[in-house]
């Protein structure tokens, strides 16, 4: 290669590298007993489109994800890390806590439906960050349209400071539209998964069946496969102090809009009762709701920024509390007790829920 050719190649490489911009993360997902995955998102360029040649009015970012798995971790330890790249070093550094085992003290936050009103979404994240959670759970609808690549950098920018100091567990909402970026960014191999943290067990479910496939048979087969997995997962964790289920669509709602309801999630209620689930967290409705049926708490926490919805149809004998308000839920587990709060954006406590773990059945499978 000639000297001029080498210079051109070097310039092209430098230009390509300069185009890579850190627009997401770093963040941590998929922690197990001895491992975790660190992820980040890069903008590698952009496609410009317009109604006429040369009229590129719209800019569509090209995104790629980076990730690396860590092993050999110790239960309960804090891990500090730094991802590669040209961004300032403080933007590439993060930390997270490895899940403890046994009856350990920990705290986490549940929130969801952050897809619009970015200013309110940002304020919710700022409030959550002040609680210093060990991990956060998102009940779905992270963005308005999972296919629109321009929305993901906005989501990650708003949540950046929180994500690089905790562990992130999201579930699919209907607005993710089952897009492959959700699976890629968050290293989700299946649409449902579970994990243990201390003496608590968490099962995360995909309730967005309609976006799985246009084929009815495929949707039904997925739902039946997920049901079998969920029942087995919960039955194998009966010695956990608490069993939590997370999904986007709630089984119960005080915002009764027929077209808005899921026909699948209400069918899960008998299983939740049989498997002695502590609480079910959902989103979808943009408000706060707390229902209680046969010992299982059903909580709707969809106040992360999406336009608020009325809660004007409480269910007699089941609904305990409703409020149309932006909010999040800090939750603290201390030994065999759990302390849950719903906190509004203005700081007032909507509701406090204190629960004590029941004694496990003597013949329950070990965790």
How would the blueprint of this fold be written?
Layout: H1 3-19, E1 21-29, E2 35-49, E3 58-71, E4 78-82, H2 89-92, E5 93-97, E6 106-111, H3 118-130, E7 135-138, H4 151-163, E8 167-170, H5 180-185, E9 193-197, E10 200-204, H6 216-235, E11 242-246, H7 269-274, E12 279-282, E13 288-293, E14 296-301, E15 319-323, E16 327-334, E17 337-344, E18 349-356
The strand count comes to: 18
- Count of DSSP-assigned helices: 7
Helix/strand structural class: alpha/beta
Report helical residue fraction. Answer: 10-25%
Strand residue content:
25-35%
The spatial strand order of the largest sheet comes to: 9-10-11-12-14-13-15
Strand and helix order: HEEEEHEEHEHEHEEHEHEEEEEEE
* Largest sheet report: 7 strands, mixed
Radius of gyration: 22 Å
Model description:
The protein has 367 residues and is of the alpha/beta class. Helix content is 22%, strand content 33%. The strands form 4 sheets. It has a 7-stranded mixed sheet with strand order 9-10-11-12-14-13-15, covered by helices on one side. Helix 3 packs parallel to helix 4. Mean pLDDT is 90; it is low at 1-18.
Could you write a compact summary of the structure shown?
By secondary structure, the chain is α/β, with parallel strands linked by helices.
């Amino acid at each position: 290669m000639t000297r001029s050719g080498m210079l051109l190649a070097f310039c092209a490489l430098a230009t390509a590298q300069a185009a890579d911009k850190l627009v997401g993360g770093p963040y941590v997902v998929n922690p197990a007993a001895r491992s975790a995955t660190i992820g980040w998102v890069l903008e590698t360029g952009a496609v410009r489109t317009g109604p006429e040649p040369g009229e590129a009015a719209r800019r569509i970012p090209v995104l790629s994800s980076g990730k690396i798995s860590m092993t050999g971790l110790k239960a309960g330890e804090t891990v500090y890390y730094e991802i590669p790249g040209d961004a300032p070093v403080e933007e590439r550094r993060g930390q997270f806590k490895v899940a403890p085992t046994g009856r350990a003290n920990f705290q986490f936050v549940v929130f969801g439906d952050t897809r619009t009103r970015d200013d309110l979404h940002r304020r919710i994240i700022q409030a959550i960050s002040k609680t210093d959670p060990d991990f956060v759970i998102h009940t779905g609808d992270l963005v308005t349209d999972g296919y629109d690549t321009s929305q993901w950098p906005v989501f990650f920018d708003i949540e950046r400071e929180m994500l690089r100091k905790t562990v992130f567990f999201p579930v699919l909402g209907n607005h993710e539209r089952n897009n492959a970026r959700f699976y890629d960014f968050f290293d989700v191999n299946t649409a449902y998964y579970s994990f243990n943290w201390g003496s608590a067990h968490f099962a995360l479910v995909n309730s967005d069946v309609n976006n799985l496939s246009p084929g009815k048979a495929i949707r039904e087969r997925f739902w039946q496969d997920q049901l079998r997995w969920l029942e087995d997962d919960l039955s194998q964790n009966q010695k956990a102090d608490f069993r939590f289920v997370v999904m986007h669509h709630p089984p119960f709602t005080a915002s009764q809009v027929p077209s808005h309801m899921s026909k699948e999630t209400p069918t899960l209620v008998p299983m939740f009762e049989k498997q002695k689930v502590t609480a079910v967290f959902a989103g979808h409705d943009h408000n706060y709701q707390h229902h209680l049926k046969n010992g299982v708490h059903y909580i709707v926490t969809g106040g992360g920024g999406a336009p608020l919805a009325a809660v004007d149809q409480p269910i007699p004998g089941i609904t305990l509390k409703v409020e149309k308000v932006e909010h999040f839920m800090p939750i603290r587990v201390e030994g065999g007790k759990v302390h849950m709060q719903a906190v509004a954006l203005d700081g007032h406590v909507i509701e406090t829920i204190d629960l004590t773990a029941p004694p496990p059945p003597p013949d329950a499978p070990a965790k």
